[in-house]
Design a protein that fits this description.
The protein is mostly helical. The protein is 58% helix and 0% strand. The protein contains five helices and no strands.
Length: 119
């Protein structure tokens, strides 16, 4: 699925480099306060929003109108947004359980091979 929430012609790219003025933007715009309020304590939302705000700074008229239409659609359909968010969280948690839970290992403990049965 390609949601294209921030740009009409491309997907969000979380690997884009941070802008050179990242710290100045965060301070000047009080983004930590804004992001904290947006995220409501959810670190995933905070980090994704921070990256999206700071790396997707294209602001031509077409892009701004597109983003406003996306926002309007989201405000008109809050249940769909919540379902999409819940689906993303479920996928992340499922991957985390698969990565660390299948063998009973936790990230803080060293991995060791399963014990061999006595011969």
């Amino acid at each position: 699925m390609k949601a294209r929430l921030t740009h009409p012609d491309r997907d969000f790219d979380p690997t884009q480099p941070w802008p050179g003025n990242e710290q100045a933007l965060v301070q000047d715009l009080a983004l930590d306060t804004l992001l904290g309020a947006m995220a409501g304590g959810d670190t995933l939302v905070h980090e994704v929003a921070r990256r999206a705000l700071l790396t997707a700074c294209r602001a031509d008229l077409e892009t701004i109108r597109y983003r406003q239409a996306v926002l309007r659609d989201g405000l008109d359909h809050p249940a769909a947004l919540r379902a999409l968010y819940d689906l993303a969280i479920e996928a992340i948690e499922s991957k985390r359980k698969h990565d660390f839970g299948v063998w009973g290992f936790y990230p803080a403990t060293p991995r060791s091979p399963p014990a061999r049965p006595p011969v």
